[in-house]
TrEMBL record:
The lineage of its organism: Bacteria, Pseudomonadati, Pseudomonadota, Gammaproteobacteria, Alteromonadales. Residues 75-168 form the Intracellular proteinase inhibitor BsuPI domain. This is Intracellular proteinase inhibitor BsuPI domain-containing protein. It comes from Shewanella fidelis. InterPro entries: Intracell_prot_inh_BsuPI, IPI.
Length: 184
């Protein structure tokens, strides 16, 4: 009876440590757990700082989006700021994109202390429908944002505009587009 409780405890502890998974095969006769895919659990001889450097390089590669973005800014006659996000697919293939709503992108105004003071989407409502599209190779599209005169009057040295693309690349681990920053 004691052996049975010990085996049950060993299985419970292993399930907590390894998580519930279909990769674990229980050997009932011995009450042991044997991982089917041991490569995930294998200890490496690399020091933690070497693994960290490798992960940082991978994150740096992942930060580059599939689409290239550019933000141009013009002050209009009535003191508004018109910011235009141009995004281009410079890949040799079409990039499948999915949007969770009717919003294609957003623009954020950030002051010289790093505080977000205005969002283009502030107070707006967007269609809550999934949109799927393919951005053809070589194509450029634009999204225009209008910053009202009262907000534009506050923008000065050290402020920045950040354009954030709302679409997700559906067939890639890379982001569709990195945020685009314009600094005053």
């Amino acid at each position: 009876m004691l052996k049975y409780h010990f085996c049950t405890l060993a299985v419970a502890v292993s399930a907590v440590l390894l998580g519930c998974s279909q990769d674990i095969d229980e050997v009932a006769s011995k009450g042991q757990l044997t991982p089917l895919k041991s490569e995930n659990l294998r200890n490496t001889n690399k020091r933690p700082e070497e693994r960290l450097i490798k992960n940082e390089n991978k994150e740096a590669e992942m930060a580059n989006g599939l689409l290239d973005g550019q933000l141009s800014v013009v002050r209009s006659e009535n003191s508004e700021i018109i910011a235009t996000l141009s995004y281009t697919n410079n890949q040799t293939y079409g990039v499948p994109l999915m949007f969770a709503s009717g919003k294609t992108a957003d623009l954020i105004v950030i002051d010289d202390t790093g505080k977000k003071i205005w969002f283009w989407s502030m107070g707006m409502m967007f269609t809550q429908a999934i949109r799927e599209t393919v951005m053809p190779a070589g194509k450029t599209q634009k999204v225009r944002f209008k910053i009202p005169a009262d907000v534009a009057a506050k923008i000065g040295k050290g402020y920045r505009l950040e354009a954030i693309f709302a679409g997700n690349a559906t067939e890639s681990q890379r982001p569709a587009m990195s945020k685009v920053i314009y600094t005053y």
